[in-house]
Amino acid sequence: MTKLQKSYGRKTISATLKPRDLMGETPRLKGAWMAKVVTLFPSAFPGVLGESLTGKALSEGLWQLETIDLRPFGEGRHKNVDNTPSGGGAGMVLRADVVGMALYQAQRDTPNDRDKWPVVYLSPRGKPLTQAMAQRFAKADGITLLCGRFEGVDERVIEEFAIEEVSLGDFVLTGGEIAAQALIDATVRLIPRVLGNHESTEEESFSDGLLEHPQYTRPTVWADRAIPEILLSGHHGKISDWRKAMAEKLTKERRPDLWRAYCAKHDRDPNEDQEQ
Predict the structure, then answer these.
(1) Which of the four, 58, 258, 261, 267, has the lowest number of CB atoms within 10 Å?
(2) Rounded to whole angstroms, how far apart are CA atoms 44 and 111?
(3) Strand 11-14, strand 164-167: pairing
(4) For the chain, which domains are there?
(5) What is the pTM of this model?
């Protein structure tokens, strides 16, 4: 079978059945934000992160990705990484000793200050991932992400490493890899030069606590639906006002929680009429 290789971030990532050297480390690129991912499925990365703008930024060294395979740290002949829940119950739990060794490797060249280097466990019981959280992660030197499997991770690991738990929402995935990629994507796009247009991150959803206004482009008329005339007027002040009003209207209709928080921040009545 031919082994495929693709270069990302000035290093080579390839799928292989041979465990990597446990003492090996990805060479750090000066000034590059780094994501370290502890996972049972390192071949899942970079995944979609290797495409489009995040992939281009990875190949240019604007950020780095290192996967730490959990399996080689496993116990015994079969490299077991889990065991049955203490107290009984269905499923399996990732062992504290196994996960701990992987996290000790991950932290070898990272600062202990969690503001400079957060350690995050992707968990449905965590705090919801927000734009503000992604902005905080982007300001750090990097991040270590622990991808859970089965029934979760031994609680002692979370306590020992002061791990922050983060959730994508009120639903359950089979593992943390998809959630980790979503978190990395939301963070990496905020790193300077990744998007190439700083204004786009300032105008998008959640930048001011509001959902984004509707977007339009050519053709001017499609399926008997025309672009709103205000957007074709060339009057930038009125366009800005329209977009702000539409963002407020959508937020009030679709995300009452965000709307209430926005109104509290701006000393406004959340029940005010937003009809435009």
Answers:
(1) 267
(2) 27
(3) unpaired
(4) 30-188 (3.40.1280.10), 204-265 (1.10.1270.20)
(5) 0.84
pLDDT tens digits for range 135-189: 999 999 999 999 999 999 999 999 999 999 999 999 999 999 999 999 999 999 9
Q: What is the pLDDT of residues 169-178, one digit of tens each?
A: 999 999 999 9
Selection from 181, 185, 143, 183 nearest residue 166 by Cα = 183
β-bridge partners, 64: 34
**Interatomic CA distance for residues 93 and 150, integer angstroms:** 6
Q: Please count the other Cβ atoms lying within 10 Å of the Cβ belonging to residue 79.
A: 13
Residues 6+ apart with CB under 8 A from 220: 226, 227, 232
Report the C-alpha gap between 164 and 127 in whole angstroms: 9
236 CB contacts (<8 Å, ≥6 apart)? Answer: none
**SS3 assignment for the chain:** CCCCEEEECCEEEECCCCCCCCCCCCCCCCCCEEEEEEECCHHHCCHHHHCHHHHHHHHCCCEEEEEEECHHHCECCCCECEECCCCCCCCCEECHHHHHHHHHHHCCCCCCCCCCCCEEEEEEEEEECCHHHHHHHHHCCEEEEEECECCCECHHHHHHCCCEEEECCCCCCCECHHHHHHHHHHHHCCCCCCCCCHHHHHHCCCCCCCCCCCCCCCCCEECCEECCHHHHCCCHHHHHHHHHHHHHHHHHHHCHHHHHHHHHHCCCCCCCCCCC
Please state, in angstroms and rounded to a whole number, the distance separating the CA atoms of residues 202 and 173: 31
Burial of 95 (0-12, 13-18, 19+ CB in 10 A): buried
